[in-house]
Every structure is written in structure tokens, then in C-alpha cells.
Design goal:
242 residues; alpha/beta; Rossmann fold; five-stranded parallel beta sheet; 13 helices; 5 strands; 10% strand; globular
Length: 242
Amino acid sequence: MARCTAPVNGHRSASAAADCPACGSRSRGYSSYSYPSYSTPSYSSGNSSGSRSNGSGRSHRPRWSRAGSVVLYTPAEVLTLTPVRNNIEKQSVEKQSSVPDFRDVFLCHAWDDRKEAAKELYDMLVSRGVSVWFSERDVLLGSTLLREIDKGLAKSRVGIVLVTPALLRRLKNEGIADKELSALLARDLLVPIMHNTTHEALREVSPLLGSRSGLSTGEEPMTDVAAKLAELVALGSVGHAC
């Protein structure tokens, strides 16, 4: 009896089956049958607008999302950002309008990040209509840095801290960033943004700041983080249930 060659050569094509001594006659008898082909499945990684949800747990929209927004959040992100949003809404709009050059966001960052990650986040926020206090743009040559920081904090709606390896090194040395954080932590209007580092590493350096939840570029692109911050500080948006 002829032996089937499938264990060695396989039968993934009609010609392979036809060449088999045992199966060739059957293959020729059913010439209309086509053997299945196999291809590697393709997967979509989602777009940068934050609209993906499969595999990420992002399927929620907080009440402050604007109508038509495609930015989606995890339940943990909504829980983290809701107290900050509540405090933003409690601020007096009339008072803010009376403060010259009032900003939506105070961006706290390490000096080493001023031309890279901090500048990238700044540009993304500005492109979304967010006014940002950024030391590279707001501290004039010859000004007293600490005094300018104090003024920037006083006239900003919310503070964001770009937590990077460079910031962690600065915090260990108790530099300018440490003084900014002390003021921001006292206001309960602070959102840490983890970038190229982890909350665990932050807690080792600053347990108080590390106790605050925030957003992370390790879990989503910085463009998505910027979109969420822009929604967070936008007033007059239409509310939606989570």
C-alpha cells in the first residue's frame, strides 16, 4: 500500500496532494476542492486620539467630555481626574478673568527635559488650545526664577508634573522642581504624568507625590495624554455620564 507523504511534505496545496502516492488519486477526483491557505492575522493598534478600547480597558467618557469627543478613559483614570476636575469647576471664573495672563496649566518639569519631553508636551497642549505656563517661554532673562515660578503657580488653573528619570534625579537633590512640587501638592490640583519611568520609582524618591495617581505615556501615547489634559481644563463643556 502506498504511504501518505503528508507527515513529511504536507498537503497545503493541491499540487502537494496530487504528488502523494496515497492521496493523489483522491485529489484528482476532487479537483474543484481548494486547500485552505494560512496567513498571519493583522491587528490594529488604534489611533492616537485615544479612541481605542480593546485590550486597554479604555471605554469610559467622564462627564466633562465634550459632545462628539473620541477620547476614552479607563475607570481608574476617571476616578483619578474627577477630584481635580471638581476643584477646577469650583474656582471662580470671575476671579480668573481678573487675573492678567491667567493660564490653564502650570507645567512642572526637570531642567534637563526643557528642550525635549517637556517641550513636546507643551506644544501638544498649546495646539489643543490650552494656555500653559512653561518656564522656557515665561521666565525672562534676568528674572528671579523662584519669583516667576510663584507667580506662575498663582495664576494657573491646574498643575501637571512631567515625571521623568531627570526629574527623579532633581528631586533627590532638592532642586527647583522640588519647591514647585511642594506648592502644587498643597493645592490638590496636581496631575503627575509618568514618562519613561514608573510610579514605583517615583514613590522611592517622593512618597507624597507617588501617592497621587495620574496618566502615563507608558500606557498610551503622549498625544492621548495631552488630549485628556485639554479636556480636563476646558470649562463650559457638555457633560456625559461615565
